[in-house]
Specification:
With 191 residues, the chain is mainly β. The chain has a single domain, classed as Lipid/polyisoprenoid-binding, YceI-like (Lipocalin, Beta Barrel), CATH 2.40.128.110. 7% of the residues lie in helices and 52% in strands. The chain contains 2 helices and 11 strands. It has an 8-stranded antiparallel beta barrel with strand order 1-4-5-7-8-9-10-11. A hairpin with a 6-residue loop joins β9 and β10. The longest helix is centred in the middle third of the chain and has 8 residues. The relative contact order is 0.28.
Length: 191
Amino acid sequence: MKKTLIVAAALAAAGAASAQSATYAIEPTHTFVTFEVKHFNFGFSTSRGRFDKKDGSITIDPAAKTGKVEVNIDMASISTGVPAFDKHLKSADFFDAEKHPTAKFVGDKIEFDGSKVKSVSGTLTLLGKTGPVTLTADQYGCFDHPRLKVQVCAGDFSTSIKRSQWGMGYGLQVLPDDVRLVIQVEAVKQP
């Protein structure tokens, strides 16, 4: 779940289409950071949730094959559709949203396949701990937005992480350590 912070990495994918360095702002109403975890160690069903508040920016230079992604996630904005579960996830057992209100992803290594972003690697800071994360692009592309009249880059990114790496050890005897993060990102080119 914490891995959702990794959503920031997805933002890095946002600007590979232009020929020079450009900065893109994450569009929060078209960017979603979601997580999936097996309900129990039995693995018969999957629990899902998302973080509703996030912001950040992506600077990318496709010609030089470099860039930087910074994404901030509001941990109190977690939503599973079950208020009691959300409350537990915000508690010290999991995200400790009161003590650690923000998670942050900083990606500084962008791998390209031609002009398309293939992956974004960097660090995720969650619960006061920082660790490495790589987001893989499942889809990625840029286009001229017909309504906004500006370039927009978008993609779907995913990764799997172990929540215990960030100190989230609650219930490891019966609850899985592996968390799948799926990040749908859309970012708008800035003037």
